[in-house]
């Protein structure tokens, strides 16, 4: 029976512990990729992933492993990202698998995302295969890490694979353990088709490509399929697997992880978490799917060129297919015109979305400062959810404002407890508890305002613990707080997209800081630009950008008109990520300046 020789597993770990490099070695050892085509972190195939050296998207590949028992096994391996902003990719990957390979860095040991990912895998009842990686490092201490895995996670690590993904050590041991420990899939080949959509991407030629895990039945080209939740039907044009390049197949069967195309052009009708069934012989119940992700932060996305609004909408729709956590709805700003309010899982996610929109869809965008969702309780008894600071009602209409709180778990070595607590306290954190995990590690748990940690908290945490602390957080309700809206005026005009919300105690200071920061960012023009910060009608800070003296085209004597135009055009092209607001050009950094803390 064919299924007996299938193994489906995800590789999970804290960021940088070596997941993608381990995947490289597995692809190499099984001759899935030839030596000639091999490159480092080959599954990180997006330019953005390669440039930043991080995995952003899950990536599923099929490979064949000739095991010591003499049989050929078909492995479906899913490489996953490690950053907290992309944990949705991890949880969707895990739902397609029976096992998880848990990579732990032999020098760093268990970190916050190691734990977070283990919990996700245990939620899905997956078999966990621990791997201690980077044993080649001089600072590696595999025995200590084994003990950590047992004490902190509670997994038996006595026969954990000792590996160096870099040097290719321990790979065969790992593959054998996968064969031995990860259960084979157990779906019913003769039952009606049930396949879970765990990812998708839009392809100009093939339409929507669905990544699926088949649980029951089979699917092949020509089949009529139905998406059980969206109730749409299509005819299958191709099925296949990635290896790692797309490889079409005659059929996919229960237990397989692969892709389906069906000339799906309607991009709004396909959702990750939906169940694909056979339209003529449908399953009676859809698979449970995924819980919807709630965005943590919102920001406005505006095309620098107003004429590109429709392009931006189309791009967002297509990108959403490949980024299920992205949310958006139209919004408008007096300063920036028409755009979209987008919801993200964190700052890195936001950054990646902006970059992908610009690269993959050729757009120039301005992102406004991200904001959390505030709850404004009004004097008329209603509650308004405020995702955009500019929309905060007048102070006189507000009874109280509540802000989102997260439960932040910071894992750090003992000697940094003081530094971590000082930082959390400084960011309005409320100490909850502290757990000693073993002899040298502690989990410090705080309730923190989400707005205080989304921007640079993680960087500050890293720098105050010499890189040793790691962070995980989850939403933990709303709490009343004394918050005020601060407006910024350029040249006397309020720029709504620069408004922000701060705690009253810090408002005046933040207003001054930001006004002076804007002064350094907004380019001089040929007239003076006053910058003011205000709470309601009260000005709390002011400064001025002086006019510039020299006209860039002055040395051309105003004579040669074409040269003059060319120069102006060149200047214009160099004005990427800049938006004209009234008579003032505002660069992208200005919107982000609002968030920076010194
Ligand atoms: P990921 O974030 O878990 O996917 O980690 P990567 O595979 O991208 O690796 C992160 C960094 O660790 C890269 O610089 C790798 O070269 C390095 N690395 C991965 N495995 C090993 C290893 O076994 N030994 C050493 N010394 N470095 C490794
Ligand atoms: Mg990776």
From TrEMBL:
It catalyses: GTP + H2O = GDP + phosphate + H(+). GO terms for biological process: positive regulation of translation. Keywords: Cell membrane, GTP-binding, Hydrolase, Membrane, Nucleotide-binding, Protein biosynthesis. InterPro entries: EF-4 (IPR006297), EFG_III/V (IPR035647), EFG_V-like (IPR000640), EFTu-like_2 (IPR004161), G_TR_CS (IPR031157), LepA_C_sf (IPR038363), LepA_CTD (IPR013842), LepA_IV (IPR035654). SMART domains: EFG_C. The keyword Chloroplast does not apply. GO terms for molecular function: GTP binding; GTPase activity; ribosome binding; translation elongation factor activity. It is a peripheral membrane protein. Its main location: membrane. GTP binds at residues 16-21, 133-136. Residues 4-186 form the Tr-type G domain. The keyword Nucleotide-binding applies. GO terms for cellular component: plasma membrane. SUPFAM superfamilies: EF-G C-terminal domain-like, P-loop containing nucleoside triphosphate hydrolases, Translation proteins. Belongs to the GTP-binding elongation factor family. LepA subfamily. Belongs to the TRAFAC class translation factor GTPase superfamily. Classic translation factor GTPase family. LepA subfamily. PANTHER family: TRANSLATION FACTOR GUF1 HOMOLOG, CHLOROPLASTIC, TRANSLATION FACTOR GUF1-RELATED. Required for accurate and efficient protein synthesis under certain stress conditions. May act as a fidelity factor of the translation reaction, by catalyzing a one-codon backward translocation of tRNAs on improperly translocated ribosomes. Back-translocation proceeds from a post-translocation (POST) complex to a pre-translocation (PRE) complex, thus giving elongation factor G a second chance to translocate the tRNAs correctly. Binds to ribosomes in a GTP-dependent manner. This is Elongation factor 4. It comes from Levilactobacillus acidifarinae DSM 19394 = JCM 15949. The gene is lepA.
């Amino acid at each position: 029976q064919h299924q007996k020789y299938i193994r489906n597993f995800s590789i999970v770990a804290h960021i940088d512990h070596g997941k993608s490099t381990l995947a490289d070695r597995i692809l190499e050892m099984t001759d899935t990729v030839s030596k000639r085509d091999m490159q480092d972190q080959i599954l990180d195939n997006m330019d953005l992933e390669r440039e930043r050296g991080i995995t952003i998207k899950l990536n599923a590949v099929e490979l064949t492993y000739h095991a010591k028992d003499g049989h050929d096994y078909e492995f479906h391996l899913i490489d996953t990202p490690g950053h907290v902003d992309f944990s949705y990719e991890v949880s969707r990957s895990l739902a397609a698998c029976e096992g998880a390979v848990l990579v732990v860095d032999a020098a760093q040991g268990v970190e916050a995302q190691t734990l977070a990912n283990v919990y996700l895998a245990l939620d899905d009842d997956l078999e966990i295969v621990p791997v201690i990686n980077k044993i080649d490092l001089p600072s590696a201490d595999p025995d200590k890490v084994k003990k950590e895995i047992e004490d902190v996670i509670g997994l038996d690590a006595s026969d954990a694979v000792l590996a160096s993904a870099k040097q290719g050590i321990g790979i065969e041991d790992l593959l054998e353990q996968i064969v031995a420990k990860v259960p084979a899939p157990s779906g019913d080949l003769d039952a009606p088709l049930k396949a879970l959509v765990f990812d998708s991407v839009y392809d100009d030629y093939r339409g929507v490509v669905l990544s699926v895990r088949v649980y029951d039945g089979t699917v092949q080209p020509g089949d009529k399929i139905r998406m059980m939740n969206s109730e749409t039907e299509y005819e299958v044009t191709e099925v296949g697997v990635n290896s790692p390049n797309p490889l079409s197949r005659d059929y996919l069967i229960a237990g397989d992880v692969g892709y389906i195309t069906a000339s799906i052009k309607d991009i709004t009708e396909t959702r990750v978490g939906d169940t694909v069934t056979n339209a003529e012989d449908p399953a009676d119940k859809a698979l449970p799917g995924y819980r919807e992700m709630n965005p943590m932060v919102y920001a406005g996305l505006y095309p620098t060129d107003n004429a590109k609004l429709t392009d931006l909408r189309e791009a967002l729709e297509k990108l959403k297919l490949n980024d299920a956590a992205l949310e958006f709805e139209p919004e408008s700003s007096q300063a920036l015109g028409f755009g979209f309010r987008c919801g993200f899982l964190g700052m890195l996610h936001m950054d990646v979305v902006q970059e992908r929109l610009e690269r993959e869809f050729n757009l120039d965008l301005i992102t406004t400062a991200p904001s959390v969702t505030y709850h404004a309780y009004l004097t008329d008894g209603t509650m308004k959810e405020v995702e955009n600071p500019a929309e905060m009602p007048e102070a006189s209409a507000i009874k109280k404002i509540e802000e989102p709180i997260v439960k932040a778990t910071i894992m750090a070595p003992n000697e940094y407890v003081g530094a971590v607590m000082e930082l959390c306290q400084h960011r309005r954190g409320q100490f909850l508890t502290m757990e000693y995990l073993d002899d040298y590690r502690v989990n410090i748990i705080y309730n923190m305002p989400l707005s205080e940690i989304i921007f640079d908290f993680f960087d500050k945490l890293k720098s105050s613990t010499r890189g040793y602390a790691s962070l995980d957080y989850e939403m933990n309700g709303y709490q009343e707080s004394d918050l005020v809206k601060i407006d910024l005026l350029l040249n006397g005009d309020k720029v709504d997209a620069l408004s922000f919300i701060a705690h009253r105690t810090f408002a005046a200071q933040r207003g001054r800081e930001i006004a002076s920061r804007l002064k350094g960012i907004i380019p001089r023009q040929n007239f003076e630009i006053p910058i003011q910060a205000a709470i309601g009608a009260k000005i709390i800070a002011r400064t001025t950008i002086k006019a510039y003296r020299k006209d860039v085209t002055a040395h051309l004597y105003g004579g040669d008109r074409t040269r003059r135009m060319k120069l102006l055009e060149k200047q214009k092209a160099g004005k990427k990520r800049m938006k004209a607001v009234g008579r003032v050009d505002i660069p992208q950094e200005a919107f982000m300046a609002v968030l920076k803390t010194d």
